[in-house]
Specification:
mainly alpha; 3 strands; 6 helices
């Protein structure tokens, strides 16, 4: 099988990709391929939970019961999208809705024991796969990647929030 580099843009004589003459250009290119590889892995790998369900469960497990509106805000989704996901997840026994103590019109979404267990199982499986990816990396390099991805996620959320303000 060809290495990932052989599937990317041709390099010029200096070893820099012809289409990326700057660090930002190289970063853009690597991110484009990262997204492609992640999509390919996702298609081949079948986890017990859909990614949307996994993320929503993690949010509930980490931060406790929340309203649909709060979940939508945290995940930068439309409330109708979250409502549909919560409905499916309720049918699957992953979450339940409880009345809000201060306002019985809206409900709070909480993870069920089954949802917690399934999220834990998927997390373990995903962590094992990540461990395989970075097995030979020094801990400092792993930490740098965590920090860089955290910063990138923050920047992406900022852009999403700005775009939502423009709408």
């Amino acid at each position: 099988m060809a290495s990932p580099r052989s599937r990317t843009a041709p390099a010029d004589t200096a070893g820099t990709p012809a289409c990326a003459s700057s660090t930002v250009g190289a970063l853009e290119r690597e991110l484009a391929y990262l997204v492609r590889w992640l999509e390919a892995v996702q298609r081949r790998r079948r986890y017990k939970l859909e990614r949307a369900h996994y993320l929503l469960l993690n949010l509930l497990i980490e931060d406790g019961s929340q309203s649909v509106g709060r979940i939508a805000e945290r995940l930068r989704l439309d409330a109708s999208t979250v409502t549909r996901q919560v409905s499916v997840m309720t049918e699957l026994g992953l979450v339940c809705k409880q009345p809000r103590p201060e306002d019985r019109r809206g409900g709070m979404v909480c993870a069920t024991e089954s949802g917690r267990q399934q999220a834990s199982d998927v997390r373990q499986e995903r962590e094992q796969r990540v461990e395989q990816l970075v097995r030979d990396w020094p801990e400092a390099q792993r930490r740098q990647l965590v920090d860089a991805l955290s910063g990138l996620n923050e920047a992406l959320c900022h852009i999403i929030d700005e775009d939502a303000g423009d709408a």
